[in-house]
Amino acid sequence: MKSIIIMATGALVIMGLLVVPACNGNGNDVPTEFDLTMAVSPATGGVTTPEAGTTRVAAGTTVNVDAQALGDYEFVDWSASPAVEFALGPNEPEGNSFTMPSSNVVVTANFAGPDVEWVPDGLITPGEYTDMQVYGDYEIHWATDEQYIYVGMRAETSGWVAVGFNATRGQGMANADMILGVVDGDDVIISDEFGTGRTTHRPDTELGGTDDILEYGGKEQGGFMTIEFKRALDTGDPYDAVLGEGTITIMWAFSDSKSLTDYHSANRGYGDITL
Fold first, then answer.
1. 238 shares a domain with 137
2. Cβ atoms < 10 Å from Cβ of 3
3. At 17, is the pLDDT very low, low, confident or very high (cuts 50, 70, 90)?
4. pLDDT per residue over 34-68, tens digit each?
5. Strand ranges, E, within 70-223
6. pTM > 0.70
7. What confidence score (pLDDT) does residue 7 get?
8. Are 123 and 195 in a shared domain?
9. What is the count of structural domains for the chain?
10. d(C-alpha 226, C-alpha 8), whole Å
11. Which residue segment(s) compose the domain that 56 sits in?
12. Residue 39, exposed/middle/buried by CB under 10 A (0-12, 13-18, 19+)?
């Protein structure tokens, strides 16, 4: 009987070991680490500490950040996706910090340069846009004035790229104001569409709306597809989002196909931009 009791006790000890959290050798739990990606927008606007790139940082760690403008550029603010709270606020470039969240995060130092005229030539020129967000292999750049929004989409692909304004997380493309574009040979094709379902979209003109892309252009170069376009903040079309001040949820996507009706597979996600 004693041997049976000892064996049972040993089994409980083994089972207990299976649920003991990993330790760092000092008896403390090892914090979970996530990717911290530091970015600069535009890339020539300045430098950051930590420098631009990706490192692993433990959740809950205080991350100290500094930004320094280069040349004629000026620091504008910090932005992050997902959002984090900067200790000194988003407008303080030096001596700032935030707490590393329990997720991967992209922290961007935004700079503004001399005024550069927006030209839809498929080249995202430093100073052409005031803001940028990066989602993996997809970038969105934007700027606004009192009447228009100017957008540059860029992804590492030879197929189409897209953005959907006023998207709802978890609902796919449903009710999103979609703009898709691609360069196919000598042709730049862009379409103003509306999300009719989670995975379906149709041109606004087929739904009784209007095509409200005023200017556009694009370029396929160096393994990247870039599409630029301009539209009114409020087009008056019921199938277009009214883009006012504040944070707007977007859906981004890109495909390896040049057909705007082909599916994008896993190359999609949600994000936020602030106007």
1. yes
2. 7
3. very low
4. 999 999 988 888 999 999 999 999 999 999 999 99
5. 74-81, 96-99, 105-112, 131-135, 138-144, 148-155, 161-165, 177-184, 187-195, 201-203, 215-221
6. no
7. 33
8. yes
9. 2
10. 66
11. 26-114
12. buried
